[in-house]
Amino acid sequence: MDKGTIKQIFAQKAERRDTTNNAYTNRLFALKRGYEQYRKKKCEDEETEWEGCYENWDFLHNVDDLIHYITKVPNQRKNKNGEYTLPTDQTKIGNLNPIIEYLHLTNEFIAKEKFQDVKKVIDDRITKTYEKSNGLTQKQNENLVEYSELLDYCDKLNEECKSYEQKEFKSHIDEWEILNLRSMCLMMKLNLCHPSRNEYSSLKFIPLVEYKKIKKPEFNYVVMGQKRCLLSISNSKTSDVNNVKVTEIVNKDLIKMLKDWRKVVGDDDRLFITPKTNKQWTNDQLSQMMAKYSKRLINKSIGSTLMYKIIIKELGKHYNEAMDNEDYSEAIKCNKVLETYAKTRGHSQSIQKKIYVVKD
User: What mean pLDDT do residues 180-202 have?
Assistant: First the structure.
């Protein structure tokens, strides 16, 4: 079966987004390729006959061996230290999820349950680790910076952009870089004021009067009115158009940046595009862009999720200090902001405080 066929199988779950179906399809094919290489090498080492490439998906019935491959076999790419490391729990879940969904949708319930049993244990391991580390994975801990350093990085992005803009002679590559840097400055400001997920990659401008005509918003918008600016984000995990997060933008600097950017993009309603291809960013491209510039300027890989955790960590400190000092006015203020951030992020405030808010 080709990718189109597999994607159609995943698309049987109507409430799941098309982007998720694509991600599941790509992950399943990558898993198939990796497992084939693993089986081939294993047969060579054991001097046994290799069964050859899998033309169908019957290899998913090799439950025990596939679970061993997913959980115990080192990654095929070396890390930055030149080592072949074991997959993280998050990587294991990333491989198990599409397997479980595929087997469910193809009525292979017995095999599905075996993979699901493993997933439950790994999910609990992740939760336990998150609770101990305030929601930080090992990789995120390595890239963690203080909130003040995050602000410094934003300043460096602005300085980098100005250095390109001040060039006397600019090539088309320079012009592309200026657009990318300006985009990143706006993206960072958006995440500082309204920390969320990679869904900001697909933001579009829309006038408030036009937005009010839409009964069920399906896309992600920056809603521009004369007196109000809003973020309208459809649920990032499902296609339920009734589940829309609407947040008022109140930060004056961000509003000004958005109005200025609206003039830059002109008739185009897309906020973030790749200048070389003129295509709108995908969630993956947003991650790549955030990692690219943070590595270049501060030698850290900071994505939207880590940024959220840095911001919540800082706000959580202030909240805990206010509670300890019985400063109810400040505590209420901090709690209101935490509540807004939880809504923007799309999870409950209890989860936010349980996992992300620093306790020490």
Answer: 94
pLDDT in tens, 2-15: 889 999 999 999 88
- Contact, 104 vs 9, CB < 8 A? no
Domain shared by 209 and 271, yes or no: yes
Radius of gyration of the CA atoms of the chain, in A: 23
Say if residues 204 and 269 touch (Cβ distance below 8 Å).
Answer: yes
Q: Are residues 143 and 98 in the same domain?
A: no
CA distance 227 to 67: 56
Region 177-182 average pLDDT: 96
Q: What tokens does 357 get? A: 């808010």
Q: Residue 304 corresponds to which tokens in the numbers above? A: 């939207």
Domain at 156, CATH number: 1.10.443
* Residue 169 shares a structural domain with residue 276: yes
Residue 354 or 336, more confident:
336
Residues 109, 154 within the same domain: no
How buried is residue 155: exposed, middle or buried, by Cβ count under 10 Å (0-12/13-18/19+)? exposed
Sequence-distant (6+) residues with CB within 8 A of 354 are: 131
Q: Measured between alpha carbons, how far is residue 312 from residues 31, 44, 126, 136, 353 in Å?
A: 35, 50, 19, 12, 9
Q: How many helices (H) and strands (E) does the chain have?
A: 14, 6
- The pLDDT tens digits for 145-162 are 999 999 999 999 999 999
